[in-house]
Amino acid sequence: MSDSCGQSRALTVLTPVKDEDALRAALARIPDGEESPLARLPGTHFGRWAVMPGRKLLFSTTHDRDVRDYLEQIAARLPGEADEVWGHCEGYPGAAGRAAFVGYLEKHRVTTSLFVSAYPNANLAEVREGLDLRQKLGDFAPRAQSMSPQELQAAFREAGLA
Hints:
Elements: E1 9-16, H1 20-29, E2 44-52, E3 56-63, H2 67-77, H3 79-86, H4 98-107, E4 109-110, H5 124-144, H6 149-158
Antiparallel strand pairs: 1-3, 1-4, 2-3
Helix pairs in contact: 2-4
C-alpha cells in the first residue's frame, strides 16, 4: 500500500458508549495539536473524538489513505489510545486483535453525507508544504516592502522561496 493516495477521504464512526463519565475522562487526557495521537497517523489531515447525545462516541477524521489501511494504522500505531477511548464503548474487542478492531470500527462506520475538504486532491505532505510556504511568504512580505528589485531577488532566494 502506498503511503498516501493523494485524495482526501472522510471516515465517520459512531460507537455506543457504556460508561460516558469514564469516556469523557479518557478523552480529556488526550493531548491535542502536534501532541495528539492522531498526529502520529500517516495521512491524517484532521481528526476528533466527541461524545454525542444518546451515549454515542463520534470519531471523525479526514485522511488521505485507503480506509481499511487507515483503520489498521490506528490499531498498529495507537493501540493504547484506542483501548483507552473505545474501551468505554459496548462490544469493543481491543486493538491487539487488529482484524477484530478493524471489523468493530467498520461495523460502526456511518456514511459521511457531507464532506468538504480544503485540499481535496493533496496529500498531507503537500498540504503541510503549502502551509509552510504560505507562512514563509507571510513573514517575508513585510520585510520586502522597502527592498530594491535586486535586494528583493536575493532575499527571496535566501529565504528559500525561489
